[in-house]
Amino acid sequence: MMQLNRREILGLSGFGLGQIVVADLLGGDRLFGAESSSKPDVPIYGDLRARKTHFPAKSKAVIQLIQNGGPSQMDLFDPKPQLTRMSGKPHPDGVEIHQPNNVNSLLPSPLKFRKYGECGMDVSEALPHVSTIVDDLCFVRSMHTEHNNHLEGLNMLLTCKIFPGRPVMGAWISYALGTENQNLPAYVVLRDPDGYTIGGKQLWANAYLPALYQGVEFSTRGAPIHHLNPPTPLPPGTQRANLDFLQTLNAAHLRDRPGESELESRIENFELAARMQLEAPTVLDLSDETQATKELYGLDNSATAKYGTRCLMARRLVESGVRFVQVTTSPGQPWDHHSDIRKGMSKIATETDQGATALVQDLKARGLLESTIVMWAGEFGRLPTTQNGTGRDHNRNAFTIWFAGGGFKPGLAYGETDEFGYKSVVNRVSVPNMIATVCHQLGLDHRRVQFPHSGRLETPSDVTASGATVVGDLLNNAVYSS
Fold this sequence. Notes:
By secondary structure, this protein is α/β, with parallel strands linked by helices.
């Protein structure tokens, strides 16, 4: 007997997609159950139902704060007195030269450091707000990566490979876990409305995963979701008729092209868009936030308002059941300081410091921090030597990132770099290990989250090639699986 999938049944029946969506919106049976019995390591095509984890999860959502440009570790979180003692002298072993005008002359940080919190974490004067929450943060000072170019570094940070063609972390997690709110996407991207960072939409690509798992852009200016509502009101019944007609066409097209990911995702997105028309505008409407909350995120200051708005929206989205939210900084590479590092860092740090800090404080106050991983990370670090006299070149050998919540140990400074901050030397952490660790806190064995592609089973940590393992020392978990 010929077997029909759900969409074929919908297409052949007289009960069209539009009618099902309307029934759902009016309180009828939901298209998706609250939980699926499918395991995360079984490929799921076009399905955003919340799925069971491999083991009990410490966290259920991720907010990823991408600091594009390569924040300088020795000017933010990893002070190196030796740079001051040997200012102007050459690095004894030389450094990896990436761009012109990079001189082998050690450059001390122009920023002052102090120790903060009960943990005594070092933070520079560039981040006065983050310095107040260090006891809630888990710093990884020993990160390293595989490329010195921005785009390749960002690809590595998000996919475990320097070249495009693999799904980003958010797409993998959406694929593995689905979403807890069927009226919102599993993976939302909040970028600066003035433009894209380097790499553009590549930074939230699904690659070979079904297209449903790519990031969905929400805007912080004007209509939050592009093209969700018609520009002029439609007569009653028009929307339903349009959905019915589209479903008829899509179902017929799909019958001739079974398993076509983009088409299946398009059908799912029509369903999702209809549901979002009711819930998304409310979730993204900040008018019901208190004045104190808006001031906490810096919405009353033009220098901090744009990034603070994105951070506040991120909190509202995870609070509403979105699985993964990716927040980027201003367009381009704002942490990329090849000259005048003090001036450049002051600008981008001012823009982002208050919003990131408020996000952690707000999640904690609402009891959401333990179930939400906040991840602050750039694509690489900077060299200890000078470029153009006052800046620093790219450095793939060492950088610092931090986590908050989600079972990561608070008040921890993990790993060490050498006396100049050039290379990670103690408890080195690779990007694949970092991704494996995030997956673990979400209840996922990174080795079992698999998708077949080009004759092999791919994983979020690219474990076959990387040998990635969970960094258990970063976690509060009494027992963890490596």
